[in-house]
């Protein structure tokens, strides 16, 4: 039984380490990518809501967090989905055409034409 505990423990730690390393790797890759500005069209938008359950002082509390994503299509026909701030998400409308600025997978801005 103790053996199973150690296996599960190391698997959980391994998942956290892999996730952390992937995040740092993507951050570094974005920092080393050129900043690009290209013609693009807003194709679609989506949100992802996460529910977090917390036990505080014997009471269950639920918090929510929302991530915002927009898919852009560039002149070559390629599409990319980027995580955007909530303030910009509300200002973008499907079909909008303009200049998309990004660095790797990091959204920098969109200027409507």
Describe the structure.
The chain is 31% helix and 51% strand. By secondary structure, it is of the alpha+beta class. The chain folds into 2 domains: 1-32; 35-112, OB fold (Dihydrolipoamide Acetyltransferase, E2P) (Beta Barrel), CATH 2.40.50.660. A 5-stranded antiparallel beta sheet has the order 3-2-1-4-5. Strand 2 and strand 3 (79-84) form a beta hairpin. It is extended, with a radius of gyration of 19 Å.
The first-level CATH class of the largest domain is given as Mainly Beta
- What CATH architecture label of the largest domain applies? Beta Barrel
> Biggest β-sheet: count, sense, barrel?
5 strands, antiparallel
* CATH topological fold name of the largest domain: OB fold (Dihydrolipoamide Acetyltransferase, E2P)
How many strands appear in the DSSP assignment?
A: 5
Number of helices: 2
* % residues in beta strands: over 45%
Q: In percent, how helical is the residue content?
A: 25-40%
- What is the CA–CA distance across the termini? 64 Å
Catalogue the unreliable spans.
none
SS-based structural class?
A: alpha+beta
Q: Mean of the pLDDT scores?
A: 92
Order of helices and strands: HEEEHEE
Count of distinct structural domains = 2
Widest beta sheet: strand line-up: 3-2-1-4-5
Rounded Rg: 19 Å
Bulk shape:
extended
Task: Characterize this entry briefly.
31% of the residues lie in helices and 51% in strands.
Task: Offer a few descriptive terms.
113 residues; alpha+beta; 2 domains; 31% helix; OB fold (Dihydrolipoamide Acetyltransferase, E2P)
């Amino acid at each position: 039984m103790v053996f199973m505990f150690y296996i599960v423990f190391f698997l959980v730690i391994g998942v956290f380490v892999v996730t952390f390393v992937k995040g740092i790797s993507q951050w570094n890759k974005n920092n080393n990518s050129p900043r690009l500005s290209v013609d693009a069209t807003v194709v679609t938008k989506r949100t992802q809501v996460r529910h977090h359950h917390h036990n505080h002082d014997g009471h269950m509390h639920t918090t929510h967090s929302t991530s915002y994503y927009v898919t852009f299509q560039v002149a070559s026909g390629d599409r990319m989905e980027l995580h955007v701030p909530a303030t910009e998400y509300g200002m973008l409308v499907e079909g909008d055409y303009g200049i998309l600025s990004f660095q790797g997978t990091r959204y920098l801005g969109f200027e409507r034409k």
